[in-house]
Amino acid sequence: MKIFDAKKILVIAAAIAVAGCATDDPNKRAKTGAAIGAVAGAILGHQLDDDSGRFVGAAVGALAGGAVGNYMDKQEQEFDSALAEEQRQNDIEIQRLQDDTLKIDISNEVSFDFARAEIKASFRPTLDKVAGVLKRYPNSIVHVVGHTDSVGSDAYNQRLSEQRALAVVDYLASIGVARDRLRSEGRGETEPRDTNATEAGRQLNRRVELYVKPIVQGQEQRAYEPPPVQDAPASWR
Known about the structure:
The chain is of the alpha+beta class. It has a single domain (62-236), classed as CATH 3.30.1330.60. It is built from nine helices and seven strands. It has helices spanning 6-20, 28-45, 68-82, 84-88, 108-111, 124-136, 154-174, 199-205, 220-224, and strands spanning 47-49, 54-56, 92-96, 102-107, 140-147, 182-186, 207-214. It is globular, with a radius of gyration of 18 Å. The termini are far apart. Residues 9-14 and 30-59 have low confidence and may be disordered.
């Protein structure tokens, strides 16, 4: 059995992704990164057997399809319990998505100082709680995505969002969450939740999101695929 060269696959994926994005698409950068990340995630979690054309070998344990719902139910309940105070103060929002992914929105106002990428000391206990739940539920991949408002240049906001997402990943890894479960990505100002014309809207747009995706037997590569790009009205950007 031979294994395809991962670097070659990534080069091909990058070329396809760039070619497939319209040059005038304001979300081109995020969409290109998502497309490449999907292939990269599959490679990180698997290798491709060129004799059978199938992915082989998962990096971490996978769940049988019928067990996923119950597994994620319990994990969601533990997050709700552990982060009840943060949710009450509107510092964190937890959602269950249709594919059983758990999405945790974290306000930048409580996690980072303005224009900085160092996690506030006062927020570390909250991330400790997040890590505690993640360590009890290891059959998942965690995508950390950083977002900013539109104040400043595109390049500056992109870099800041990447740095903040990586800071969260580094911290979670430092307190015991397996590094091979963690992915970081910055999307700058490209995916606002609200208008950037008001301070209230900009505050909502400054955030870090965690996507906890279950690893399902036979569909393992999906856990490594980045969260989908969220389109927003042009007036919000």
